Every structure is written in structure tokens, then in C-alpha cells.
UniProtKB/TrEMBL annotation:
This is nitric oxide dioxygenase. Transmembrane segments: none annotated. One of its GO terms (molecular function) is nitric oxide dioxygenase NAD(P)H activity. Is involved in NO detoxification in an aerobic process, termed nitric oxide dioxygenase (NOD) reaction that utilizes O(2) and NAD(P)H to convert NO to nitrate, which protects the bacterium from various noxious nitrogen compounds. Therefore, plays a central role in the inducible response to nitrosative stress.
Length: 394
């Protein structure tokens, strides 16, 4: 697939990517967003400022370089990137722009070592990866558009209900203006809203929090202190407001064929996709433990609905943990989801699907407990409400 000299040249840059990868990707974003301001609407400024976007891209570039002689090893990592790109509406014509800016960033950051040969090798390697992603993304775009009610690009949906779920989380029910159907999504997937706020276009992902197959999509949004989109949604979006929406995407989904026990472990607003998964799985008879950590009862969304599902399904059990309970709160436990608490919810043979979502430190802790308690790695599933980060850092 590659010219004979490309593989050794790329491999020779692996140590440099390990030490300078984030410098390269940060420089890359600076170049790209200043020379192509039209792409700003795709990239989240907070993820830029926090460095998580540059780390996720640097991690992917390093993984690619490290596996350049056995690309099949990367296959499990690709669907997450493909789904993220498709969710946001990345197009084939964006790839040459990213490629040019990435090569320039490599040249400018590694100026003393980035020879013409190395840059040519990276140009070839980038082109191959770009084509792989373009093809995989086109296939997902086409499949989504072909679903009953499916579409490609943006569609206008209107807010038909706005419901307060807790002190900080509010749900928005969205339905087509034209009365046409909506495609059935996979429980765990998310929508992308394309918002025009004060003359700036922002794209934000929101998990679908209701059962699939309803004539509406429900998203549930936490008011983020200082957050642009979430505060705008809470304060300015009312029943009747039209919103531009990209179709459901994501691979943090329930596998409905599996019958082994299901453990949903969420913290804070991470509860949203777990609600869709619980709604979709409850009637299957599969044993389900719904473990949710919240600060206190005021911040705890969907308690009534989860209690109702647990009361009407023998296979569903809920466990709530608050770390700062108020005097009238009634959690099952006070504190954090620690190893002992998790161990009590696991079957003795550890053959369980553990779905995990919450703040980064919560996820790192629960993931580490899951691994230490013997949950098979392939059965530990997670999503980040931002760029994917390392989980075993804890
Ligand atoms: C797959 C996925 C699913 C998601 N599902 C949900 C969901 O179901 N519900 C939900 O509520 N959220 C969800 N999110 C998160 C959501 O997409 C938004 O990130 C969230 O609503 C915050 O967006 P915002 O525009 O309000 O905040 P932003 O404006 O993006 O700000 C986020 C934080 O960064 C800070 N910040 C912003 N700009 C800067 C800067 N330049 N420098 C330093 N700090 C800065 C802000 O003060 C704030 O604290 C999901 C994300 C993903 C990736
Ligand atoms: C070969 C080329 C590319 C690679 C290897 C790549 C890789 C990645 C990776 C690893 C992520 C993070 C995924 C995650 O969080 O799990 C990501 C996110 C993203 N990518 Fe790409 N990408 C490429 C091309 C592009 C192009 C052409 C665009 C077009 C504008 C683009 C736009 C984005 C955006 C907007 C995000 C989300 C960023 C965020 O959440 O803040 N990418 N990409």
C-alpha cells in the first residue's frame, strides 16, 4: 500500500511524536483555525483551551505511526472517530485542508529533523488514513439517510416540550415540523445541534435520553457554568423554537442481542444515554443494575422514572450514591462509587457489560475498579462528553 521507504520513515518519527505530539497538534490547530476560520464552527473552543482536542488528535497520530506496519490493529479505534466526524458533519473536502496544516505543523515544530523525505512519507500516510476515514464516513452518512425518516446534513426540528429534570438538567423534546417520521436511533447515541449564538455557529453533541422509537427525540442538557450552548438552551429555547439538528450517531450503544447482566454506572449528566439504554433494555429480562452518582437529591435527574422502571421490572435494580446529601435526601449510599460498592454489584463470574459515563475523574476511578475486579476489557464500554481521554491515567 505504501512506498517502500514510507514505513521506516514514519516509524523513525515515533519517538518524536511521543515527545512533541501535542506541540505539533496544538500548532496545527492554530494554523488551521487562523487560515480557515470557516472550520471554527466544527471545533469546540473549550476543548481547544483545555488541550483535550490536541491530546486526542496527537494520540491518534501517534497510534497511527506506531502501527503503520500493521494497520489492522487500529481497526477497533476507528468507529469512534468516524462516528464523531459523522455526528459533526465532517466532509471529504475538509481532509486536504487538515492534511496541509498538519504537514506544515510537523515541518515547523520538528524543523531541525523534518526532512523532505519524512514530510513526503507523512503526506502519503496521511492520504491513506484520510481516504479510509472518508470512505467509512460516507458509508455511515448513506446508511443514516436511507433509514425510514433518515436524513443527511441538517434538519430543522422544533421543541415541543421543555421539562425540568433537576436543579441543573432540563430536557428538550424535539420533533419534525413537517410531521414526517424520525429514524429509530440506537440507545446510547447522540445528536448534534448546530446553533447560531450571537453570530457564531457552534456544534454541540447531546445524548438521546428517551427510549428509541418515539415520535420525538429527547435531549437533556446540564447548565454548564460559563457554558455557551447549554446556558443558551436553558435560557432562550422554549416550546416552538426551531433547532438545526444532525442525525443520531455514536457507537456507545446497547447491543440488544447480548443477554449477560448489564451494569450502567453514571455520574451527573452522564446519566442521559444510560436512560435510553435502560428504557430499551428493561423489558428484555436481562439483569440490570442502574448505579447513579449525584451530588445530592436536587441534582439527581430522572429518579422518578428509574424508580418506576425498577418497580415494574424484576430484572431492574437502582442504586443511588450522593456525595453531599441534603438532610431530606434518601440515597442508597453516601460517598463515591468505590471498589467495594462496585464489587457488590458484579456477578461472581464478572461476565457483565459495564457501561460507564460521568466526569473524567469518576470515569478513571470506575474504569480502574472494573479492570481490577476482573471485568473483561472488551465489556467495559464508555463515552466521553468531550474528546476521548486516557482512562488508565488514574
Ligand atoms: C457524545 C457526547 C454526548 C453529550 N451528551 C450530553 C448530554 O446528554 N447532556 C449534556 O448536558 N451535555 C452533553 N454533552 C456535552 C455537550 O456537548 C457540551 O459540551 C456541554 O453542553 C457544554 O457546552 P457549552 O457550550 O455549554 O459549554 P462551553 O462553552 O463549551 O464551555 C464548557 C466549559 O469550558 C469553559 N470554557 C469555555 N470556553 C473556554 C475557554 N476559551 N477557555 C477556558 N475555558 C473555557 C466554560 O466555562 C465551561 O465550563 C455531550 C458531549 C458529547 C461529546
Ligand atoms: C486523517 C485525518 C483525521 C484524523 C486522524 C482525525 C482524528 C480525530 C480524533 C482522534 C478525534 C477525537 C475523537 C474522540 O474524541 O474520540 C477527532 C475529533 C474531531 N475531528 Fe478529526 N481527524 C481527522 C480529520 C478531521 C477533519 C478533516 C476534520 C474537519 C474539520 C475533523 C474534525 C474533527 C472534529 C470537529 C472533532 C471533534 C473535536 C472536539 O470534540 O472538540 N477531523 N478527530
Amino acid at each position: 500500500m505504501f512506498s517502500p521507504q514510507t514505513i521506516p520513515l514514519i516509524q523513525a518519527t515515533v519517538p518524536l511524536l511521543k515527545s512533541r505530539g501535542e506541540d505539533i497538534t496544538q500548532h496545527f490547530y492554530r494554523i488551521m483555525l487562523s487560515e480557515h476560520p470557516e472550520l471554527k464552527a466544527f471545533f469546540n473552543e473549550a476543548h481547544q483551551a483545555q488541550g483535550t482536542q490536541a491530546r486526542a488528535l496527537a494520540g491518534a497520530v501517534l497510534a497511527y505511526a506506531s502501527h503503520i506496519d500493521r494497520l489492522e490493529a487500529l481497526a477497533p479505534a476507528l468507529p469512534r472517530i468516524v462516528q464523531k466526524h459523522v455526528a459533526l458533519g465532517v466532509q471529504p473536502e475538509h481532509y486536504p485542508i487538515v492534511g496541509r496544516c498538519l504537514l506544515r505543523a510537523i515541518r515547523e515544530v520538528l524543523c531541525d529533523v523534518a526532512s523532505d523525505e519524512i514530510l513526503a512519507a507523512w503526506g502519503e500516510a496521511y492520504g491513506a488514513l484520510a481516504q479510509l476515514l472518508i470512505d467509512a464516513e460516507e458509508s455511515v452518512y448513506a446508511q443514516t439517510a436511507a433509514l425510514p425518516g433518515g436524513w443527511r446534513g441538517q434538519r430543522q426540528l422544533r421543541v415541543m416540550r421543555k421539562v425540568r429534570e433537576s436543579d441543573i438538567i432540563t430536557s428538550f423534546y424535539l420533533a419534525p415540523e413537517d410531521g414526517e417520521p424520525l429514524p429509530v436511533f440506537l440507545a446510547g447515541q447522540y445528536l448534534t445541534l448546530v446553533l447560531d449564538i450571537d453570530g457564531q455557529t457552534l456544534r454541540r453533541n447531546y445524548s438521546l435520553s428517551d427510549a428509541p422509537g418515539k415520535p420525538w427525540y429527547r435531549i437533556s442538557v446540564k447548565r454548564e457554568p460559563g457554558g455557551r450552548a447549554s446556558n443558551w438552551l436553558h435560557d432562550h429555547v422554549e416550546v416552538g423554537t426551531p433547532l438545526k439538528v444532525q442525525p443520531p450517531a455514536g457507537e456507545f450503544t446497547l447491543d440488544e442481542q447480548v443477554r449477560r447482566p448489564l451494569l450502567l454506572v453514571t455520574g451527573g449528566v452522564g446519566i442521559t444515554p444510560a436512560m435510553a439504554i435502560l428504557e430499551a433494555a428493561a423489558a428484555s429480562g436481562r439483569p440490570i443494575r442502574f448505579i447513579h452518582a449525584a451530588r445530592h437529591g436536587g441534582a439527581h435527574a430522572f429518579r422518578e422514572r428509574v424508580d418506576q422502571l425498577a418497580a415494574t421490572h424484576d430484572n431492574v435494580e437502582a442504586v443511588y450514591i450522593y456525595d453531599e446529601p441534603r438532610p431530606d435526601d434518601t440515597p442508597h449510599a453516601v460517598g463515591r462509587v468505590d471498589r467495594e460498592l462496585l464489587a457488590r454489584q458484579l456477578p461472581p463470574d464478572r461476565d457483565v457489560d459495564l457501561y460507564l459515563l460521568g466526569p473524567r475523574l469518576f470515569m478513571q476511578a470506575v474504569y480502574a475498579h472494573g479492570v481490577a475486579l476482573g471485568v473483561p476489557a472488551a465489556q467495559l464500554r464508555y463515552e466521553f462528553f468531550g474528546p476521548t481521554e486516557a482512562l488508565l491515567a488514574a
